[in-house]
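We treat protein structure as text, and this decision shapes the records that our systems exchange. The tokens are whole numbers drawn from a learned vocabulary of local backbone shapes. One such record is reproduced below, unchanged from the form in which we store it:
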Amino acid sequence: MMTDAMTSRLRPVQPGKTTLVAVLDIGSTKICCVIARLTPRAEGKALRGRSHQAEVIGFGYGPSTGVKSGVVTDIEKAEHAIRSVVGMAERAAGLTLESVIVNVTAGRLGSETFSAAVSLDGLEVEKADIHRVLRAVNERSVRPERSIIHALPIGYALDGQKGIRDPKGMVGEKLGVDVAVISSETLAMRNLELVLHRCHLQIEALIATPYASGLATLVDDEAQLGVACIDFGGATTTVSVFNDGHLVYADAIAIGGHHLTLDIARQLSVSVADAERLKTFYGSVLPGQADERDMIAIQPVGATHDEAPGQVARSVLTRIMRPRIEEILTAIRDRMQATGMMDVCGRRFVLTGGASEMTGLPEVARRTLARNVRNGRPMGIAGLPEMAKGAAFATVAGMLIYPQVCAQEYAEPRGRGRLTGTDGYFARVGNWLRTSF
């Protein structure tokens, strides 16, 4: 069932109230934990859907081990890496976490759009009718091997009239709905849950990585007119398409920036660490006029310190990197064309993620995708350290925005009322009793 995902559904942030949120970004190259205080914004100063200002009070960051392409490959190494990063954030914030919001890239992330309709018999649309039509979608989208992460209503229709945002209180004979359903393989998510349980953390909610990246980097007009956001991660590249202000499509392919590093290491016969340094300092996917003359010193694998370093032209590096980038962009374009999403996304792509900061990438993307392209950075998060303000941390920023917009999603009502982290009602009452008596 749509609501039988292994995680509890996140309770939306209450308007006008301050709360704490803890998020954990488990990537293939880095793990990042952020604890933030969400405080209500002044009226008229927020981007649409963002009712709160996120102020970071705890930040932890470290290399990722035991995780490959978003999938847990070594449970002990992954546990150690997560404990280290979460501990760093907890010490900075001065509190202990019980639960976190976690991103999902693994498990062949995919999306489908489902439609359903129910009869109203000429009566007013009530909340129960909306739940009834969403439940009808739920029954059609269930698959035992996949768990649903998001069920986002795209739009309602009343008696065949589409484009209705909120049908509550309207009158009609038939209520229909289109829902974008994003799902992942259940077993991949179970392993993620298992690692976090070993760290004594509950999963408060799951969010698909491409959805989080889009929330952090897109402006309202783009999301309204149609846009695609490509997140170039370490070992995965994800894409999300927004139209009419809603997420309508998400996908992921298991190629990322780390594959470029491995290509350089193999072709030039250097260590992976040296290949990463060469990619960062000298790498470009667009040839320059002086590239044939610019020589770069390289240290071959196994060479002793007294040996003279080798040299390669910068153009060699470009020729190694460009085919891989074109492969990623072509794969995304072909998948989007196969699903009709190239028409839905309009004329604009936004690039984000750590590998998106490569020199020349926007130009190559513009040629390959035949669309307008810009680089996207996370917006609207205060208190992040300088190193975390770049495109590599877009997913983390989007996860902090998610509690403010998750009310749009369909979820069966639950009895639980605790908010993220340690800021729940009963936790506060318990703390007050312990300290007062």
